[in-house]
Amino acid sequence: MNKSTREIEVYLFTDGGCSGNPGPGGWGFILRHLASGKEIEKSGGIAQTTNNQMELEAVIQGLATLKRPCGVELFTDSVYVGKGMTEWMPKWKSNGWKRKEGKKLVPIKNEEFWKRLDAQLSRHHVKYTRVAGHSGHEENDRVDGLAVAAYQKYL
Fold first, then answer.
1. Whole-structure pTM value
2. Which domain holds residue 104?
3. Residue-wise pLDDT tens digits, 112-136
4. Is 118 a residue of the active site?
5. Residue 141 annotated as catalytic
6. What is the pLDDT of residue 134?
C-alpha cells in the first residue's frame, strides 16, 4: 500500500505537561488499534524539562511503541507539535535543522526531539488532528491525567 494513502489503523492520543515551564514534566499516550479496540497506555516523567519537550516526547514514545509501519491518526492539543510536523519541519530540514530569524539561520529549539520525531514520522503515515485541551475530550483528558501523574513524583 502506498504510504501516502495508507488507511488509518491506529489512533494515538498524546499529551505532555510541566509544573512550571521549565520544571518537572510528564508525558502520556493512549494507542488504540481500531480493528480490535485494543489499547495501550504509557507515561513517563523527568525532573527538569519544558512543556513543549513533553508534548513532543508523548508523540515520539507513542509512535515508537508501534511494532510495524502504520497509518496513524494523532490527536493532540499541542499546536506546537501539529504546526511543527505539518508546516515547520520540512523547512527546518531543508535548512539543516535551522530556522530563519530575520535574514539569518539560527538553531531550532528542541532539535533533538524534532529529529527523533522525524525518524518516527518516516516509519508511519501520520495524520494530525488538533483537539481542544481541557474541553471534555475523553481521551485528551485521560492522557493529560497520565502526564500530570507522571511528573507528580518530582514535586
1. 0.93
2. 3-152
3. 999 999 999 999 999 999 998 777 8
4. no
5. no
6. 74
Does the annotation count 16 as an active-site position? yes
CATH assignment at residue 48: 3.30.420.10
Q: Please tell me which residue in 9, 16, 25, 125 is annotated as part of the active site.
A: 16
pLDDT classification of 43: cutoffs 50, 70, 90? very high
The catalytically annotated residue of 25, 26, 44, 55 is 55
The total of structural domains in the chain comes to: 1
Is 125 marked active-site?
no
Q: 3-state SS string over the chain?
A: CCHHHCCCCEEEEEEEEECCCCEEEEEEEEEEECCCCCEEEEEEEEEEECHHHHHHHHHHHHHHHCCCCCEEEEEECCHHHHHHHHHHHHHHHHCCCEEEECCEEEECCCHHHHHHHHHHHCCCEEEEEECCCCCCCHHHHHHHHHHHHHHHCCC
Q: Does 77 participate in catalysis according to the annotation?
A: yes
Q: Which of 9, 57, 77, 139 is catalytic?
A: 77
